[in-house]
Fold:
Amino acid sequence: MSEKKSMPDYSDLEFKAGSDVHVWDGVIYPWFVHAKTLDAMADFKVRTDDVYVVSFPKSGTTWTQEIVSLIKNNGEPDNTIKNKHVEERVPHLEMSTAVPGTILYPRIAAMPEDKPRLIKSHLSYQHMPKDFLVKKPKIVYIARNYKDVSVSGYSFLRMYKAFDIGSWKEFCEGILMREMTPYGPWAAHVLGWWQHRHDDNVLFLKYEDLKKDLRGGIVRIADFLGKDLSDDAITKTVEHCSFETMKKNPMTNFTGLDAFDHKVAPFMRKVLQLAGGTGDWKNWFTVAQNETMTKLIDERLYGTGLVFDYDP
Ligand code: A3P
Structure:
C-alpha cells in the first residue's frame, strides 16, 4: 500500500459510516465488524456448551483465549495447539468477511459441528447474540485498566500499515478521553459485564490479577469450566501461557499478520522490566493527561465496586 490512510475522523461518524468505522445501535464499530453481522446476532444460534472469551479490545483477550484453549485440552499443547493459530481455535464471533454480507460468521461456520466451540468476542453485553440469554453458555470476561488498554490500543493501531494513527496526543485526547473508541466506551463495556459478574455463567477476571498470579487465574478458569486439571496439567498451562512463551509462539504473537508492520511495535510489546503487564501507561501519559484520565475513570467507576491496579 503506497499511501497511508489517515485515521477516521471521529467527529463525523455518520459520514464515515460503512468505511473505517460506523455506528450501530449507538456504538462505534470498526470496519471489520459489518452492520449486517451485528443485525444477524438476533438469529445467531448459541450452543449451551459454547465457551466465550469476551473483552474490550487490548485487555488480554489473546492471553485468555490461549488459556481457555489449553485448559479445554487438559493442558496438553498437542499438534492442533502447536500448529493452529489461536484465532482459528478460538475465532472472533463478529469478525466479518471482506465482502459485507457474504458469510456472516465465516470462522464460526467453519468450526466442526460435533465439538464444543470456543469463541472470542469484543461485544458489549447488550450486543451479544440474543440466544445467549436463553442458552446461557459460559463466558470468561477479561477486563484491564483503561490506561494500559489505551497505550496497548495505540501501539496496536500504529502497527496497521493502512493507517496513520497520528500522535499519542491526538489519539489520547481526541479519541480515548472523548470515549470515542471502537466497541463503545471502555467504561460502559466493562460495567455492562461487571453487572453480570454474579451470573452463574459469567466469570469476570482482571488482567492485572492474572498477571500477578497466572496459576491462580488458570485454576479459577478451569474450575469455572468444570475441568479438573492435574497439577502437572496446570503447570503445563502456566508455562505455555506465560508472556515469554506466548511472545515467542507464532500461533499467539501475530507475527504472521501481513496487515501489521511488526517493526513499529510487536503485538506483545516489551512492557517495563517484567514484560507484558501493568504500568506502561506511565511512559506515555503526561501529568495533565493522567489527571484527566484518572478523573474520567473515577467518575465512571464511582460506586460500582469495580477497581483496577495501575502499578506493576
Ligand atoms: P501490551 O500491548 O500492553 O503488551 P488483546 O489480546 O486483548 O489484544 O491484548 C493484548 C495485550 O495482552 C498486549 O498488551 C499483550 O502483550 C498482552 N498479553 C498477551 N499475552 C500475554 C501474556 N501471556 N501475559 C501478559 N500479557 C499478555
About this structure: Residues 44-301 form a domain with the Rossmann fold fold (CATH 3.40.50.300).
